[in-house]
Specification:
Length: 96
C-alpha cells in the first residue's frame, strides 16, 4: 500500500492539534497553540509495510541522514528484515 497525504491525514491530525499544547506545557513557554500544519513526505522514502519495521526504518533513516546519504531507493523490505534481525542480535549481545 502506498501512503499518501490524504490517506495519512486522519492519523496525524490528532498529533497536529495536541503537539502545540504538549510543547507549551512541557517547556513552560508562551506560544501559539494553533494546529500545526502537516506535510507528509512519502516520495523518495521507503514505505513501512509492517508496523514492527517502523522503528528499524526510523533508525536507518536517521543513520542515513547522519552520513548524508540521500538515495534511499536501496532500502527495501527484504533489507529491512535483515537489518531488524541484526539489530535484535546486537541488542541481545549487549544485554548478555
Amino acid at each position: 500500500m502506498k501512503f499518501t497525504d490524504a490517506s495519512l491525514a486522519p492519523y496525524v491530525n490528532a498529533y497536529a492539534m495536541a503537539l502545540p499544547f504538549m510543547i507549551r506545557n512541557f517547556f513552560n513557554v508562551s506560544m501559539d497553540t494553533s494546529k500545526f500544519s502537516i506535510k507528509i513526505v512519502s516520495e523518495g522514502f521507503p514505505q513501512v509495510l509492517k508496523i514492527e519495521d517502523s522503528g528499524v526504518y526510523a533508525l536507518k533513516l536517521i543513520e542515513c541522514h547522519a552520513m548524508r546519504i540521500v538515495d534511499l531507493t536501496k532500502l527495501s523490505k527484504e533489507k529491512i528484515a535483515i537489518i531488524r534481525e541484526k539489530l535484535a542480535v546486537d541488542i541481545f549481545s549487549e544485554l548478555q
